Amino acid sequence: MVESTSRAVVGVFTFMDDALNAVKDVKAANFDWRMYSPVPRHEIEEVTYPQKSPVRLVSFTCALTGCICGWALAILCSLDWPLRTSAKNIASIPAFFVPGYEWTILFGGLGTLGAIFAFCKIPSVVRTAGYDPRFSHDKFGVVVACSGTQVEDVKRRLKAAGADEVDVQESL
Amino acid sequence: MEHTNDSKKEAPVTYAEVNDTILKMLEPPGRGWFLLLFTCLFFLAIGASSWFYQIWSGFGESGKSHPIGWGTYITNFVFWVGIAHSGTLISAVLYLFRAAFRQPIYRLAEAMTVFAVMTAGLFPIIHLGRPWYALWLMPYPNQRALWPNFRSPLLWDVFAVSTYFTISATFFFVGLIPDIAAARDRATTKFRKALYGVTSLGWRNSHAQWKHYTAAYLIFAAFATPLVVSVHSVVSWDFAMSIVPGWHATIFPPYFVAGAIFSGVAMVVTLIIPLRKAFSLERLITPFHFDAMSKLILMTSGVVTYSYITEFYIAWFSNNDFERFQFWFRPFGEFWMAFWGMTFCNCIFPQLLWIKKLRTNIPFLFVLSIFINIGMWLERFNIIFQSLTREFIPAAWGGYNFSWIEVGITVGAFGWFGMWMTLFIKFFPSVAIVEIKEILPPPVRNEGHGHHQIAGNAGHH
User: Fold this and answer.
1) Is residue B259 part of a domain?
2) What share of chain B is helix, strand, coil (3-state, %, to 5)?
3) Domain count, chain B
4) Which among A108, A120, B148, B433 would be 20 to 30 A from B182, CA to CA?
5) Which candidate, B445, B437, B441, B434, places its Cα nearest to that of B455?
């Protein structure tokens, strides 16, 4: 987004609307930024990430795969060793609904878990610059990456938006 | 919280208070907690030793013989699957319906689900007699090139219960991640720092993480919702697909699902009342929540009662002598006490919840919830034992003697379940931090900002 980023300016906010105003400001100024909040809220999403999450596509694809695999497992296993019961079909469609149904959910759920891991970038063992334990408590945070010469400008913007405190760290 | 602030005298609950109150539960345990844990471990030891004795000495020790092939173990299996059920209802279905009473109780209900399925899953294995053959239920290419029978409801159960456990456990863990991160950020001891550091997976509450997380959580709820319907329906087909009088009934799936929700919500009440008292959660779990759970109990009690009546009506209306006899035998036969006990606990006693005062009377609800759990165990007893003792011809009739091995294993199951619950409440947040914060008004400088979201903001979306 911006030129070389060697500093992270961390703004700690008590009020959500102040933090959102800071995000709008640094976004308009084309800085690389990140927001932390103790809770997800629509107001935050609208400002920070209005696009749709791709998680649903992964979930749908995995669920569809599960559906096909569940049915295929039941049908192919039954054809492989036919257990004939009276005049019933070897591939009994109503009976095989259960494995198909359950695997749709199983694969969809596990795919969604994989999607969370991939898109949220977890598990992560890397310490995140700018993260403050208060962001899981009751404070909102806006972290802006900038070059050394831009630090003062960013600090001014965050303070103007209403930051309680502004700190400068090595990099984002 | 919206409902805790009805009284104008009380200060509104804040984000900080939510963290402080809930994370306080994770402080080093006292003597009471250790006593509870050792009691559970003692019960578990009784169960484990009974099981080992049964394996060592043979399945005849279980008290089962012709015609009762399915006895206490399958009764326990159905009972525990039923207990598990309402956790998913509360965590997933009520999430999709934006039920405002869900947030403070759903985490405990989810934990109950996962641990109850872990308990339920033991019983088919115990029931096998030779548990090492449980592997044969799995569809894997074995040396005989033989696959399991996909037309059998017993195999459907394997798919249904294993999927249910996997998805419930995943949903439970995903919901916990941000709360574990909050615990990590306050941990002081080395052990806790390591535990929460690993299990929070490096979660940081960033805007991008929340975006994908909330989208995924909604999808998880959508995946878990059909499981609420399917799991106990599949369990009910274990019975309904047979031709045994008393089992062969098309009403079984909805009847079982309603019964499961009924017993599960009762178990949530049983667990949450002492927890609320022990950890002073009165400002988070309020009479509003008990009132809502009571209404759910009352409604499902109505459905269960309707199902009982329908069974009797259909037995009469079918003009089938065997069905008619079975439903005469239940209230007036050898095991009449089980039938009337079930009727009292599940149909009559819960009717007191029509009285508004009793819906928020905590001691009354605690007693009622225990009666309902007993009643629901008796319901499964009636379905399984009574039907098998009086099949088609008198030559196939029989009785049943409980063995102390079965009693030991049943007690052990409560110990196993209790042990996991006891460990959970002390090591992980058993009330959802983030979701409670979601229903609070966010701290804003400009009062107009974000206020439009608050009233209906019962969930992520």
Assistant:
1) yes
2) 70, 0, 30
3) 1
4) A108
5) B441
Is A1 in the B-facing interface, judged by CB distances under 8 Å?
Answer: no
Query: Where do the H-state alpha helices sit in B185-286?
Result: 190-199, 207-240, 252-278
A110 CB near a chain B CB, below 8 Å?
Answer: yes
Question: Taking the CA of residue B164 as centre, how many other CA atoms within 13 Å lie in the half-sphere pointing to its CB?
Answer: 36
Instruction: For residue B403, give the amino acid letter.
Output: S
Instruction: Please give the DSSP secondary-structure letter assigned to residue B206.
Output: B
The parent domain of residue B205 ranges over 15-134+149-454
Distance CA B380, CA B81 (A): 11
Q: What number of residues does chain A have?
A: 172
Nearest to B145 among A63, A81, A98 (CB): A81
For residue B138, give both structure tokens. Answer: 């799995």
Contact A39 B437 (CB under 8 A): yes
Amino acid at A145: A
Contact of A53 with chain B, judged by CB distance below 8 Å, is answered with: yes
Distance CA B37, CA B420 (A): 9
What pTM value is reported for the model? 0.91
What CA–CA distance (Å, rounded) separates B181 from B16?
Answer: 15
Return contacts of B5-10, CB within 8 angstroms, 24+ apart: B6/B288, B10/B283
Between CA B77 and CA B380 the distance in angstroms is 10
User: Cα–chain-centroid distance for residue B11?
Assistant: 35
Cα–Cα nearest to A49, from A34, A30, A63 = A34
Nearest CB among A56, A95, A120 relative to B213 is that of A120
Considering the domain boundaries, does residue B407 fall inside one?
yes
Which element (helix H / strand E) includes B396? Answer: none
Q: Is residue B142 included in any domain, yes or no?
A: no
B159–A38 C-beta distance less than 8 A = no
Which residue is it, tokens 């009506």?
B313
- Whether A55 sits inside 8 A of B216 (CB atoms) is yes
Q: At what angle do helices B321-332 and B287-317 cross, to 10 degrees?
A: 130
| Domain presence at residue B125 | yes
- Which residues in B lie closer than 8 A to residue A41 (C-beta atoms)? 438, 442, 450, 453, 457
- Give dist(CA B90, CA A43) in Å, integer: 26
Go through the domains of chain A in sequence order and give each one's CATH number: 7-52+123-169 (3.30.70.120), 55-119 (no CATH)
